[in-house]
Amino acid sequence: EQTFRRLAYGDRLLKSDLPRFFTACDLHPTEGEIQQAFEKVFKGGNNTAEVIFLLDCSTSVTPMCFHDLTQFVKSVVESFTIGPDNIRVGVVPFSDDVYQTFGINRYNMTYQICAAIDNIGHKEGLTRTDLALKETKKLFMCSRPGVQKIAIIITDGKSTCPERTLQNARDVKKDNVNVITIGVGSHVDLEELKHIASSERNVFSVYDYSSLHKLRDVISRRTCVAACVLCQTILPRIRDHGLYLREVLELVWTLYMPIGCEISWYTEIDYDDKVKKSTDINTCLRLVIQAKIEREGFITLPSDVREGVEEVSDPDLALEKVHKWIEDKKRAGETFQGFS
């Protein structure tokens, strides 16, 4: 902190001064290592999700409408940062049954996902939304722990088996999946879409398939809110005016982690009074939490649902939840695993 204040211009340190800062701290990362840490803090961690599209391909969807549907999905995918450590995408086409599905761990490149979408055939039939939701629940089983899960359903009609659809939607949402529904045309059942979606805020409708493109930015933002804030606000400010103290410290801790305070996802440590005293882990956690909340508006924490997460925007509440999570692990007899 003293070195930061000595080298900073006011309350910020220019990104170009990071090598000089580390040298003054008697730390000697390469420029490549500094850049990797920067990308980890200001890119990968802020644009991470498991996303599955459920596509109604039933008889009511004409070939032209089907083309508009797949083009829309590809345009949304192209707006994502795709990668094994970023956003992963799966697709579940359905009519009488699900077919030509691929899961979130199948492809790691944008062009691969778009090519797979192009290869989906138009298979007319019923609207078995219930089967698509059942398949989606299975596909989310390989989700990364702590990563938000989003299901986007696009349909132009009422499901063939509405009771099963609503039950399977409840099952999916119990796994802490954020469900978004998009109704196309005048024959959709908006009440059904409201019950399928995680909230009414997640229900959208358009006049026809050619109008889907109007929702591209909305759906992209809903999936990548943190990334939008990062690209439109945070990165330009860092480029033009520099990094705040908390941000620089987060880079330091990403490169040189304090004993007992792993800032990346998991590491085995024994969280006891001796460790707390020697590392002041509370201060470390609070600064990291505050930095993430300031950058993203929230921090993603484990929820009570298995492999689920929740978004917390209050630093004190976030710290309290982290400690509760640690205590629950200890009571369960598990070795504490550091939390990012």
TrEMBL record:
PROSITE patterns: VWFA (PS50234). SUPFAM superfamilies: vWA-like (SSF53300). Gene3D superfamilies: von Willebrand factor, type A domain. Residues 50-219 form the VWFA domain. Pfam families: VWA. InterPro entries: ECM_Assembly_Org, VWF_A, vWFA_dom_sf. This is VWFA domain-containing protein. It comes from Magallana gigas.
